[in-house]
Each structure stands twice: as structure tokens, then as C-alpha cells.
Design goal:
By secondary structure, the chain is mostly helical. It has a domain at 53-112. It contains seven helices and no strands. It is elongated.
Length: 117
Amino acid sequence: MTEILPFLPVPDYTLPGLFLLCLMEPVPLFLIYALSARPNWTWAETLSRRRGQYRAWTGTLALGVLLAVWLVVQGLLIGFKWPIQYVTAVNGFLIILLALVPGTRRFYAKSAQTNSH
């Protein structure tokens, strides 16, 4: 993969690796927990602009969009030809799609949250 480095705005894979390690690994795990347990974190409420939805739902949708943006930038810089890019694209698409399914939106609506706890 060293043949790709001349096309990137970084001298090595350290910055992209740190991004993937620090954001794209713990954030999905955090969101899985938050979607499953629905903890009542008041600090997280300020992060959600969609007041009608549970904040972890908003974070999940943002994660899917972040994956899509990551792949668009990657495609512009190095092309779209490696199998892992297709796997990541499918993951991002499914995250966005499943978050936007009406049943999912209803399940994570604020009224459903308050009624279930």
C-alpha cells in the first residue's frame, strides 16, 4: 500500500490510522452500548440537535454519514478499488438505512424512550 502514499496529503499512515483507531473503533462500541442500555446522560443531550430522537440514534446516523464522507474523500484521493472500501461502503449505507427505517425512528423517539423507562 506504499504506492498510495504519494496521493495522500500525509507523509505516512499515522494520522489516518489514529483517526480509525481513536474514532472508528470506540465510537461504534459506545453507540451500541448507548442504543442498548439507553442511559440517561444529561451531558449527551446537548450533543443532539434532533430533539425528538434519542441522542444515540443521532450519533448512529452521524457515524454512518462520517463513514460515507470518509469513503468519498478516500475515493477522491486514491480511487475506489480495494475490497475493504466496498465492505465499508456497505456498512455505512446499512447504518444510515437502518437508522432511518420508520420503525427504528419510532423506537428511538423521545416519547418511546420516556414511556419505556
